[in-house]
Design brief:
single chain, 123 residues, alpha+beta, 3 helices, globular
């Protein structure tokens, strides 16, 4: 899969996208939402995950056990970035999610990824 356009939204209100640098160079802590473009789903919002990782150009969310599983079985060395989520107050979190949903740099959402697809499991 081609690398998708993406943007990371942080708890302090800052954002980091491809114009700021590579996914590897993005801050690794306090991620609230990662929004990306996907050919099958349009705008994809990953949120409420403990961990986020970029695998073969696509972002996924996971808990610690899923992340370890992905890292231990990444035989093709395709995971290029790992970021940590963090709990935030509800009003601040909702404002960040709203910003991600309304970001004009991404297409509208056309479908939902399943929970398994969000974790990188292919069916």
């Amino acid at each position: 899969m081609q690398a998708s356009k993406w943007k990371i939204f942080y708890g302090d209100g800052s954002v980091f996208d491809e114009s700021c640098g590579t996914a590897e160079s993005a801050p690794s802590h306090d991620v609230q939402v990662i929004v990306s473009s996907h050919p099958d789903y349009g705008r994809v919002l990953l949120r409420r995950w403990d961990w986020y990782y970029l695998n073969d150009g696509e972002w996924f969310g996971s808990d610690i056990h899923g992340l370890l599983d992905q890292l231990l079985h990444d035989t093709k060395n395709q995971i290029k970035a790992v970021k940590q989520g963090r709990v935030l107050s509800t009003p601040d979190y909702e404002a960040i999610v709203r910003s991600a949903r309304e970001d004009p740099d991404f297409p509208p959402q056309s479908a939902e990824k399943t929970a398994a697809e969000n974790r990188g499991l292919r069916q």
